[in-house]
Amino acid sequence: MSLILGIESSCDETSVAVVEDGSRVLSNVVATQIQRHAVFGGVVPELAAREHLIALMPVLEAALRESGTTLQDFSGIGVTNGPGLMPALLVGLNFAKGLSAANNLPLIPTNHFIAHIYGSFLDEDLTILKESSTYPILALVVSGGHSSLLLINDDGEARQIGFTIDDAAGEALDKAAKLLNLGYPGGPVIQKTASRGNPKAFNFPRPLTGTAGKATPPEHKYNFSFSGIKTALLYHVKKHQNELSEDFISDTAASFQEAVVDVLSRKAVAAAREFSARTIILCGGVACNQPLRDRMKLLCPHQTTLRIAQPKYCTDNAAMVAGLAWHSLQKIEPALGVDAFARLPVIIRVPFISGL
Ligand code: KG4
Ligand code: ZN
Q: Rounded to whole angstroms, how far apart are CA atoms 350 and 274?
C-alpha cells in the first residue's frame, strides 16, 4: 500500500488530497476562491496566488485530519506544475517543494490536463487500465482552459486529435453568463437558468461542424471554436435589448447551452467512431453539466463504454493529481528544480498506462 499527498493550485481552487494506491480517495479537501473572484467576473491571477498562500496550510491540515494520516505516512507528493495560471501554480509548487524537502519525500510534478482525464478512474478498480478491451480511449477534456480530444492507446501513447482554436467551452459559458448578467462561474448558473428555458427557442451557430452551409476544413474536423457562438450571443442580446424578460434570458441560456452541448457531443462521438474507441472519457469542469452528461450517454456508440468522472472529480481537485502521481512514483528522483509551465505542451504519452 502506498499513499500519495496531492496538491493542486493551478487556478482558483486550493486543494489537498490523500489517495491510496492511485485510486482510493481518503480525503480530498477543496477551498474555492470563487466568491473572491466573482466581483471581477473572472479569475484574477495575482489574487488567486495570494488566496492559495492563505489557504494551503489549513487545507493540508484538514486533508491529513480527514484521512487520519501524518506526513510520515506518504511515499511521495504529487503537485500540479502546469498548465495553469503561473502565479497560482508557483504557490502550490513551492509549498510542495518545502514539504518534500522537510520530510524527505519525492516530489512528483503532475500535468493538470492529464490529471483531469485520470479523475474518471478515482474510486475505481484500476484493473480496467490493464484490460485491452478498454483501448483505445477517447478523452473529451472540457474545462475553463481546455476543450480537447485526446486519443490514448494501450501502450500509453497519446495523440491530441482536437483542440479549441479560440475559447474553451467553459470560458464560453463563463463569458455568456457575464453577458447575460447571471454571475460567475458561468457553467453552473447557465445550466440552472437553462433548465427553465427552451433549448430550441433560438438557433445559435455550431462552428466547425459543417452546418449552416459552411463546410469544415479537414484540419478542423475535430477542433472546436466557441468564440463565434459568443459573438452571436452578443448580437442576439443587442437585438433584443428591449425585451430582456426572465423567459427570454432562460430561453437564451438554454439555446446557448444546447449549441455548446451539441458541438461537444457530436464531435466526440464522431471521433470515437472514426478511431474505433472502446472507451470515451468525459472530464473537466464542464463535464459537471447535466445536459452534456445526458447527451453523451444518449449518443455513445453501443460497443463503447462511457466513463464520466464524478462531479467532485470534474472540477479542480487534488485527488486526481495524487491518483495520477502514484503512477509516476517509481520513476521520480527527488527533484526540487522542477519548474512550472502555463501552457499545455504536446501530449504524446500518459503516465498512467505502462503498456499491456
Ligand atoms: O476544471 P475546472 O474546475 O477548472 C479548469 O481547469 O478550468 O473547470 C472550470 C469550468 C468553468 O468554466 C465552469 O463554468 C465550468 O467548468 N463548469 C460548468 C459546470 N460546472 C462548472 N460548466 C457547465 N455546467 C456546469 N454544471
Ligand atoms: Zn482544471
A: 21
